[in-house]
Amino acid sequence: MSRHQTSWQQLQADLADTGYVASDDLAMALFLAVTLGKPLLLEGPAGVGKTQVAKSLSELQSTKLIRLQCYEGLDASHAIYEWNYQRQLLAIRAAAEEQKPSTEIEDHVFSEKFLLQRPLLEAIRQETPAVLLIDEIDRADEEFEAYLLEVLSDFQITIPELGTVPARSRPHVVLTANGARDLSDALRRRCLYSFVDYPDRRTEMAILQARAPELEARLAEQIVGFVQALRKEELEKKPGIAEMLDWAAALGGLGVNDLADDPEQTQATLVCLLKTERDRAAVPKEVQQRLVGRAA
Amino acid sequence: MQVTRFPQRATGPAERLSGFAAHLRMNGIPAGLPETETALAALGVVDASRMADVRLALKAVCTGDADANGRFDDLFDAYWLNRGRKRDGTAATHSSRNASADSGRTYRMASGASDEEGEADTPDDDTEAASTGTGTGRLVASTTRSIEKTDLRKLMTPEDLQRAERVAEAIARSMRDRRSRRFKAASRGEALDMRKILRRSVQRGGEPIELFRKARPDRPVNIVALLDVSGSMTVYARVFLAFLKGLVSADHRTDAYLFHTQLVRISDALRDSDTMRAVNRLSIMAQGFGGGTKIGANLKQFNAQHAAQSVNGRSVVIILSDGYDTDPPEILAQELARLRRRGARIVWLNPLRGWDGYEPVARGMAAALPHLDHFAAANTLDDLVALEPWLNRL
To answer: In this protein, which residues make up the domain named AAA+ ATPase (chain A) (predicted)?
Structure first.
């Protein structure tokens, strides 16, 4: 189903139906991004659901999610378009045997047929506005960031051999960043912005209930309380929402009803939350029991 | 309910919003015409009669990073709710600037601000006269040499300091590793490796089927600098700060922090192109400048808050400190070890090391030593220059 949201509260409610609990800040930013057709930049720690925003939005709009995962060394040919070089060569050979004039060959090999669409080109050529997720933009180089500026402000892509390709539809662009490096002001200023933080207790509870409705309320309270308390501990990698959900699933799968019942088993399931050797050492059973105590 | 008042002459939403943008700019959040336009458009699609909605909408439009996002609510209240806090940033700045000027040693935090007032009453110094008066290349060179060799503590006149700052900045700028002119083969890159393409195409009858590319080699290091500005370091602080400014403006990946009893990130302030505003921002940040030191606690905070983002295997963390720590030395050692596990190289520049007969006996320094990759003196500008070859070897 595709719905048009008339207010940010409506969008927030619709997102909640898809299982995404968005804060007011985020819902407003997303609403404006969709309504005004501006890119939205999301920052925040890992595991708070930045990427999920785009997924939920595409689900909500029933449109295609086009994802561009950024990495160091990402360049235009991997993000925007590339010519299918091998096929071009073969076509030239075939054409040469038929003694075609060279201008005709040239027009032929630099036509749509030999164009490989990469995510950005694909996104602007959708009939209905797609959701374009540009994930971890801070991993890409500055050169690439500069490429993006053209796409993000004009929604058109210039291919020297073909000319300018205007957008058939304006994609909803969501960019995420973890702060691996500072983004340029130019990029920031073209985007709406929202900082996504770890959810508060109430929000996290709502997320857990939306994703794992079968979980008993008391255990859910304990899980959320524990994870919230755990984030206050000194850890190298604080557990995000996905980790929390994994843990809840693990506990549910093992048939745990109360965290305090079986400290051994609870300790064993902490692998879902603690992802480094040091963090596991930092939460021995005593600490775990203290956190459970606080949570209960 | 708070009463919303606007400047008398403000006639419509556009003017009020542009006033708000100006208010944000004054407080260091870059908001210009495009933001105002977007804000107007945004108010058109939300319920503009609800304060909460307007706040959320303007927040999404006008802020661009986590810092601005965090400060936005106060700035919003200050403008729209007219609590008279519109100029608090500037006001606080002014008094702290004057306060630091009174202390005599640290009138300015960043280089480049106008310094006219000092000229009349400072004693004439012959180095300046030599460079401006005769103007021969040799004399200029020799005076520059001398300032590079002088212990930074002895640079006391404003002119000396200013020149030292300039030299420090120049050193830092030149230290940025220059991008290589040569390309090297890479699986993907910005340029085609014609030589290799032709070579390989021979076996296919000259048809260049496979494309090889070459790219510029990676830049080897990014620098994170932590500057101690506690009481024992104040004599060095200005020159080091200029050094940091040079580092930061030479390479946008460089990150810089001040610490005394607290840790403050100053990269953005140092990058501020408006020098006066940079000075203001820095002097607000430097409250506590010249006080005690908590190196251990600050490093701990750095590790917890900033290291994940700014430190990786290609980082060099430069700590500029004399190692006098009021925290237990174990914390310092533990945090340095933690920092090192991130893969960073740690350089400790200690101005005391340049003194004759210096032994790292300060407990903090002694605890830190086993975790350092490079421990060097930093009491003359030459010592800073000496850092470059070391960095280049990485």
So the answer is: 36-197
* Residue B69, min C-alpha distance to chain A (Å): 7
Bridge pairing between strands B345-350 and B315-320 = parallel
Q: How confident is the model at residue A130 (pLDDT cuts 50, 70, 90)?
A: very high
As a whole number of angstroms, the distance between CA A81 and CA A89 comes to 18
* Nearest CB to B69; choose among A86, A183, A193: A193
pLDDT given for residue A135 in this prediction: 92
CB contact under 8 A, A31 and B46: yes
Interface test with B, best of A178, A192, A234, A276 (most B CBs within 10 A): A192
Instruction: Measure Cα distances from B300 to A144, B296, B334 in Å.
Output: 34, 6, 9
**Chain A contact set for B269 (CB, 8 A):** none
Q: Which residue has the higher pLDDT, B393 or A273?
A: A273
| Average pLDDT across chain A, whole number | 87
Domain A8-80+118-195 of CATH type 3.10.20.30? no
Torsion angles phi and psi, residue A36, rounded to 5: -90, -5
Counted residue by residue, chain B has a size of 394
Residue A173 corresponds to which tokens in the numbers above? 């662009």
pLDDT given at position B189? 73
pLDDT band at A247 (very low <50, low <70, confident <90, very high): very high
How far off is chain A from B80, nearest CA to CA, in Å?
19
**pLDDT at position B155, please?**
59
Rounded CA separation B317/B308 (Å) = 13
Backbone angles phi, psi at A264, to 5 degrees: -60, -50
Under the banding of pLDDT at 50, 70 and 90, the label for residue A265 is: confident
Comparing alpha-carbon positions, the chain B residue that sits nearest to A232 is: B304
CB A61 within 8 A of CB A131: yes
Q: Which of A29, A77, A195 sits opposite B66 (nearest CB)?
A: A195
- Taking alpha carbons only, the member of B181, B178, B177, B151 closest to residue B164 is B151
Q: What is the mean pLDDT of residues A260-278?
A: 85
Nearest-CA distance from A162 to chain B in Å?
21
- pLDDT (tens digit per residue) in A11-70: 999 998 888 888 899 999 999 999 998 999 999 888 888 999 999 999 998 999 999 999
- CA dist B368 and B330 (Å) reads 9
State which residues of chain B have pLDDT below 50.
Answer: 1-4, 84-145, 177-179
User: B56, B207, B216: best mutation site toward chain A, by most A Cβ within 10 Å?
Assistant: B56
pTM, 2 dp: 0.64
Output the CA torsion sign for B20, B26, B28, B31.
positive
Q: Are B31 and B63 in contact (CB under 8 A)?
A: no
ipTM: 0.82
Q: Which of B61, B70, B207 sits opposite A32 (nearest CB)?
A: B61
CB contact under 8 A, B60 and A25: yes
Write the pLDDT tens digit of every residue in B166-213.
777 776 666 554 445 567 777 777 778 888 888 888 888 878 888 888
Between chains, do A75 and B188 touch, taking CB under 8 Å as contact?
Answer: yes
Query: DSSP alpha helices (H): ranges in chain A?
Result: 8-17, 24-36, 50-61, 76-79, 85-97, 102-109, 119-124, 142-154, 185-190, 201-211, 217-232, 241-253, 263-269, 277-282, 285-295
Q: Mind spelling out the 3-state secondary structure of A133-193?
A: EEECHHHCCHHHHHHHHHHHHHCEEEECCCEEEECCCCCEEEEEECCCCCCCHHHHHHCEE
Check CB contact under 8 Å for A32 and B57. yes
